[in-house]
Amino acid sequence: MKIYKKNQLPDKNGYFGPFGGRFVPETLVGPLNEIERGFKAAIKSASFRKEVNDYLTSYAGRPTELFEARRFSSAIRGPRIFLKREDLAHTGSHKINNAIGQCLLAKRLGKKRVIAETGAGQHGVATASAAALLGLKCAVYMGEEDIRRQALNVFRMKLLGAEVIPVSSGTRTLKDAINEAMRDWVTNVRTTFYCIGSAIGAHPYPLIVKYFQSVIGNEAKRQILKATGRLPSALVACVGGGSNSIGLFAPFYFDKKVRFIGVEAGGRGISSGEHAASILGGRVGVLHGTKSYILQDSNGQVAATHSVSAGLDYPGVGPEHAFFKWSGRADYAAVTDSVALEGFRVLSETEGIIPALESSHAIGYVLKNARRFKKTDILVLCLSGRGDKDVDEVERILKARTS
Ligand SMILES: *Cc1c(COP(=O)(O)O)cnc(C)c1O
């Protein structure tokens, strides 16, 4: 793929500027080296690239559409807005792009078992699906609190033949699930591949996830040029760990006139302390093997997070986003729960598309900042997933508000 250009790669130690690297126990250094070598060889192999591409096309439903949201745009008196429809990908979000890629890599490395962590359950479902498709054993770590909030996805994973392992440590959410998955990996590293769900973790994971998610931006670039004859003014995507956003942004990296806007989960507002905006509200630290912006308390302990969307509820962010922030290549903003809910409602009503609550943060950003763009500006917004999984939660919130 086109993105594998020299100056967009991390250095040999896995650093993007001052961020990234590999902060892991010694037992994992060998396995990470094996994955790095295996990944680099795989993406040089035409047959591996073809295999990935064939599954993305025949199984995951790619390419996904680029759809101009005309009624949404006129309702908010905004610029031209094109939605990159990752909600139409198999299993309902962009997560499948990376899950297929990493499971194929696992097979190529001779592994029979994959493990994954999941928060909202989207990455767990995507990995369980890819594992079923490719005949791999699959175990998914999930915090007990998330198991309660996302019962439907838990059942989906079980239907797909995966084992769901409840995690009862810490806040019993995504960060604790990652800790447990890493523990499993250390123990079973000979037979097991750890399929990480976002552009986070120790080198080479952020690079691997970027590579497999760049299909989003590569397609979007071709599609926007075909639809409008020019490059977009800006790209907008929500940022949890940062995989759908890096996938959209990366192929435009050298197109300096294309602005990148990453939208973090502002929760109840940055000043409330109840949010998950790691770039805007965090400090430099190390979490899950990588150096990046981390939400932490005054003692440097990882802070509790809050977001209406489980998929953005993570106290860290991928190191390449930290680098984009630091170097000024991308701008980051935060959108509160209530603005995201407004985005959720307005897009549903104007376009007949119910977006995931995560994606609704990107929509909410455009809704609130419509006036800052010219009518002739062209925005590409990553609609990272569909909202079916969120309708119960939204109903509960709306009921609580009116009662
Ligand atoms: C997981 C998820 C996200 C957040 O993850 P990123 O790695 O930041 O993309 C966003 N949207 C949807 C629909 C998700 O499932």
Structure description:
The protein is an alpha/beta fold. The protein contains 16 helices and 14 strands. It has helices spanning 29-44, 46-58, 70-75, 95-108, 122-134, 144-149, 151-159, 174-188, 205-213, 215-228, 243-249, 278-281, 319-327, 337-351, 357-368, 391-402, and strands spanning 15-16, 19-20, 66-68, 80-85, 113-118, 137-143, 163-167, 192-194, 234-238, 259-267, 283-287, 290-294, 330-336, 378-383. The strands form four sheets. A six-stranded mixed sheet has the order 3-4-14-9-10-13, with helices on both faces. Strand 5 (113-118), helix 5 (122-134) and strand 6 form a beta-alpha-beta unit. Helix 2 crosses helix 4 and helix 9 crosses helix 11. The longest helix has 16 residues, at 29-44. The radius of gyration is 19 Å and the shape is globular. The N and C termini lie far apart (52 Å). The protein binds pyridoxal-5'-phosphate. Pyridoxal-5'-phosphate binds at residues 93, 95, 120, 122, 198, 238-245, 311-312, 356, 358-359, 384-385.
Distance between the termini: 52 Å
What shape does the CA trace take?
A: globular
Number of helices: 16
- Give a count of the beta strands, DSSP E runs of length 2 or more: 14
Q: What integer is the average pLDDT?
A: 96
Helix content: 40-55%
**Strand numbers in spatial order across the main sheet:** 3-4-14-9-10-13
Radius of gyration from CA coordinates = 19 Å
Strand portion = 15-25%
Described by strand count, sense and barrel closure, the largest sheet is: 6 strands, mixed
Ligand kinds: pyridoxal-5'-phosphate
H-E string? EEHHEHEHEHEHHEHEHHEHEHEEHEHHEH
